[in-house]
Structures are given as C-alpha cells and as structure tokens.
Amino acid sequence: MRLLRLLLPRSRASESPSIRGSTSTRAGSTGISAEEVDGVWLVAGLGNPGREYEGNRHNVGFLVADLLAARIGAKFGRHRRSVAHVAEGRMGVGVDAPALVIAKPMTYMNLSGGAVAGLSQFYKIAPAQIIAVYDELDLPFGQLRCKIGGGEGGHNGARSLSAALSTKDYLRVRFGIGRPPGRQDPADYVLSNFTAVERKELDFLVDRAADIVESLIIHGLEWTQNAYHAA
Q: Which residues are part of the catalytic machinery?
C-alpha cells in the first residue's frame, strides 16, 4: 500500500523548499521560526558511521534516513552543535507542509542518545515529535512495527536515546532483522551484512519503513498501525 505516494507526490529538489527555503543546507544554521517549532519533526535513523558498517543489519536506520532525505530533496551536512549529520526539508510543497529534521548520529550506536537529545534541544522539538528508526532482533526479517514508548528490547541505541531524552515517550519505527542463526552472538549478528536473499527485499522494506515514518507524521500512530501492521 502506497497511500502516501498519492498524498505526497515526490517533487524535484527545486520544487521542494527546505525548512529555510533551500534544499542545500548548512546544518545547524537553522532558519526555523518560532511559529514553526511546533510543526517540526525530528527523524533519527540509528546506525554506526564508517564504510565498514554501511551494509550491516545495525544500519538500517541510516538507510531509511537516506531515503527520506532523498524524497524531500535534502542533503546531509555536519551539524555545528551536535555530533550528527542532518538534512532539513519539507514533506511536500508549501509553508504548510511538515518540516523535517532528519538525523544520522555519528557517535556510534551505543551513544546515539546524546546526539539526538542535542538536536531536540537545538530545534526545540518535543519527544512526542521525535521518530527513531532502528533494527529489531525480536521481529522477524521483513516485519515493520511502529509504537510510542515501551521497552527497548535490549537495543543499546534505543536505550541511549531514552536515557538522554529522560523519557521513553517518543515514536519508534522498528525494522525486523530476526534472531541470529544457531549460537551466533547477537552482537556479531547485528554487525554482519544482510544475506543475498535478504538484500533482494531490502530496498522494498526500506521504502516501506520510510512510508511508515511519513504516515506517522501525516496520519498519526493509530492510523499508521492499523494500515501497516495488518499488511
């Protein structure tokens, strides 16, 4: 189901103004006005920086963040006040389109929370308008789930985020990667690459996870759960 593709047609970068009216941003030099603050969303894709981690299961949050940035025609840049790469833009055309700050923490997974909390303070974004996207061992590969609050399921990035924000009440999009086969250590498993079979489905699943993020912003949690959890 691609409802958002109808609601939010993908326009060229020149037709999709960012938060400050340009798709090419200097991260951290924000032009968000006081009136816009309540309408800004922070989407944090969790992962590890560095080429050696790019294809790892633990980095699906980065993949979703990259796709969301591409959809709004925004480019990532280093943020001057947080250890993160940030892309800013609008989900659609016009001043009424939701403003997005898409972040990839560069602190490594276990310390993701500090970077995200710093961005939430810088942009004055409340936890209720933060969406974290990360891999989930307790969901089978290909299953996508969204929720607000609850436990972290042993995920160190989510645990760091909850601690840094001093609350669990932020939205999460959990990307199922399944449990490791046999007796493989879960720590080694999440830092391994997807199998050839999994890679055949990966692009579709990343695309669907990005759709879920957009749906959470446009339709809210209950609608999105009903639409995507049943699929």
A: 58
